[in-house]
Specification:
Length: about 150
């Protein structure tokens, strides 16, 4: 029977790569904004000729960005920073991560390959602690929505 409910508690996410394997989903201290998976490019270019005829070009690009947002006090930030610093130490460590994000109840699966940290997160100190946002770039993202 199709599920008509959603809970972040059903979301599992992880990064595995040089320097560690880290839980990034429920239990990792995510902020309300959670996780975003954003494809980089369009899959199609439509070209229309002078006479109105047209064609479509299918692009092989499956790249994208994955953004994880954690509460400032989450210990996940320290783990990600250690992994970031380790991978920054050598080109041999860079871009070798795998990230998976799964909604176990709905059957959504996102497999991200050749993932690299885009940059260190912006850090702010104010009246409220806020969140820390980690952006990663993936060469290939394969997605299934509602695959159960």
């Amino acid at each position: 029977m199709p599920q008509s409910t959603y809970s972040f508690l059903e979301v599992t996410a992880a990064i595995i790569g040089p320097g560690g394997a880290i839980n990034l989903g429920a239990g990792a201290g995510p902020s309300e904004e959670g996780i975003t998976i954003d494809p980089s490019g369009e899959m199609n270019t439509m070209t229309i000729g002078a006479d109105g005829s047209g064609m479509h070009a299918l692009h092989a690009d499956r790249s994208g960005k994955i953004t994880f947002r954690y509460l400032k006090a989450s210990p996940t930030n320290a783990l990600l920073m250690a992994m970031y610093n380790f991978q920054r130490s050598s080109g041999a460590q860079h871009g070798q991560n795998t990230v998976t994000v799964v909604d176990t109840l709905r059957g959504d699966v996102h497999n991200c390959q050749q993932v690299a940290f885009t940059k260190a997160p912006n850090i702010g100190y104010g009246r409220e602690a806020g969140m820390v946002e980690w952006e990663l770039s993936a060469v290939r993202i394969d997605q299934t929505l509602g695959g159960l």
